[in-house]
Amino acid sequence: MRMLNFAKRNFKELIRDPLSLIFEIVLPLFLLFIFQQFKIPSDNYKLENFTPAIIVFGLSFITLFSSTLIAKDRTSSLLIRLATSPMKSSDYIIGYTVSLIPIIIIQNILFFAVSLILGLKFSINIMCAVIASVVVSILFIALGILIGSLVSERATGGLGSIVVQLVCFTSGMYFPKEAVGKTFSAICKALPFESCLNIIKGVLNNNFENISVLNIIIFSSYTIIVLVLSVIIFKKRMISDNK
Amino acid sequence: MYAINVTNLTKKFRDKVAVNGINLQIKEGELFALLGTNGAGKTTTIKMLSGLITPTSGDIKIENMDIKKDAFKIKEILNVSPQETAIAPNLTVKENLEFMAGVYGIKDKSKKIDELTQRFNLAEVLNKRAKTLSGGWQRKVSIAISLINDPKILFLDEPTLGLDVIARKELWKVINELKGNITVILTTHYMEEAESLSDRIGIMANGKLIDLGTPQELINKTNAENFEDAFVSIVTGGKE
Q: Is B23 helix (H, G, I), strand (E, B) or coil?
């Protein structure tokens, strides 16, 4: 129950930060709406492709703001107080993770609601895509915990922005990676963001052939590695910060 | 039985000895102040006593429990009010109290929160977000939170640092009321605070506990006119 109590506190902290809401929800919604007005002749901007792209884009801000919360907590005396309480490391990690899931579900509901208004066809696959995006979000949450555990609150802004930029340029949300050349295409393949987008896109469009085995392997490998690293480094930093 | 019993406590950070072989016993209900110049080792000592860091060598017994073996049980009976205000900024005062009550698994949360609200006169700020409160109020809330689990041992690290004289006196009153019921370990840079509040005072320098006694005993021992002079005399070895 301690982890849920901690998750409740984290959720309130995040939801009451207007800047986090603007970037996590308002900005992606604005992009979703505005790009549909341009009528760009590219498959990337069709609602069935661009909505999953916006979901992954929104998740990159989850990394940014969760890392800021964790870095802020680490440097504040609140964590000293909590470190002397009966809370365990698992309570912190699960507490941070669980607190972000409702925000991700709210993001999904709003993104799909706007997409439906703009013309996306309703199907049960939308529900499946929401579930897929919650699974994909574990990577972004783990990245947030890792960055928040590694660097100061100030530096989380910079590192979090790099994740946002990487999502924009390497996930294939705005343009097909092949258009930029072989090297760039290989980088996109090696990073996990294209796989994240392909998974959600494949689930939404009931087009599972679009999700390659390589996508699953890359996404799973990154998620497991980042998750394990985030737990180890968070635990280490909890001790070293108190020295 | 002692509330805290420390034997040969030592902490080394690589080659630097931060705390060097401290022996100390603190009685139940005692208000004990730990004084020293900057870098004397008091913060490291407090961190070891509160379980934040592990000693390099030596033993710490809290209420007869070993801090290494019984860490979880000990964490349930102690609490800390850190130097900087330790509250969640975007939560209201009430939510902060509820959150920490949840951390300690307090069964009757409302009753405990009502009790602390009355004791610290928090009613007027109860529904305000913590970050909007003045420094004095934040400190008061921070100390109120540290009593949420009815701790047997409470660590107060510089509780009145940066507060104006009125807020400081108000907090002294609260701390005085804790005497006898809770074992309080206080660190402060204000000599009058230590003298006015403490049953006994320990003075640290260069990682060692160099003197120990009631404020009056320390004054008498150094033939000083007041406690501040006694402190200076002890820390400088009588050179100033």
A: strand
Closest to A242 (Cβ–Cβ): which among B13, B47, B146? Answer: B47
As given in the structure block, the two tokens for residue A210 are: 């679009």
How far, in Å, CA of B45 to CA of B182, rounded? 19
Q: How far apart are CA A223 and CA A229, in angstroms?
A: 10
Q: Smallest CA–CA separation between A21 and chain B, in Å?
A: 14
State how far the Cα of A174 lies from the Cα of A43, in Å rounded to an integer: 10
Residue B99 has pLDDT above 80, yes or no: yes
Most confident option among A18-22, B5-9, B163-167: B5-9
Task: Kindly report, residue by residue over B114-126, the tens digit of the pLDDT.
Answer: 999 998 889 999 9
Cβ–Cβ < 8 Å for A132, A206: no
Nearest CA in chain A to B83: A77
Q: Do A81 and B86 touch (CB under 8 A)?
A: yes
Q: Among A1, A12, A80, whose Cβ lies nearest the Cβ of B82?
A: A80
User: How do beta strands B78-81 and B183-187 pair?
Assistant: unpaired
Predicted local distance difference test score (pLDDT) of residue A111: 97
Give Cα separations from A170 to A198, A200, A243 (angstroms): 12, 16, 40
Does residue A114 register a pLDDT over 80? Answer: yes
Helix, strand, or coil (residue A240): helix
Of B78, B90, B105, the CB nearest to A84: B78
All structural domains of chain B, each given as residue ranges with its CATH number in brackets, are 2-235 (3.40.50.300)
Q: Collect all residues with Cβ–Cβ distance below 8 Å to A3 and sequence separation of at least 6.
A: A90, A91, A92, A94, A95, A98
Q: What residue segments make up the domains of chain A, in order of their start?
A: 2-240
DSSP track, A68-121: HHHHHHHHSHHHHHHHTTT--HHHHHHHHHHHHHHHHHHHHHHHHHHHHHHTPP
Model pLDDT, residue A109: 97
Establish if A6 touches chain B: CB-CB under 8 angstroms.
yes
Mean pLDDT of A93-111: 95
Q: What share of chain B is helix, strand, coil (3-state, %, to 5)?
A: 40, 30, 35
Tell me the chain A residues in contact with residue B146 when contact means C-beta distances shorter than 8 Å: 81
Q: Looking at chain B from residue 125 to 164, which residues have their Cβ under 8 Å from any Cβ of chain A?
A: 129, 145-146, 155
Could B90 and A1 be called an inter-chain contact, meaning their C-beta atoms sit closer than 8 Å? no
Instruction: Pick the closest to residue A143 from A239, A61, A205 (CA basis).
Output: A61
Instruction: State whether residue B210 is helix, strand or coil.
Output: strand
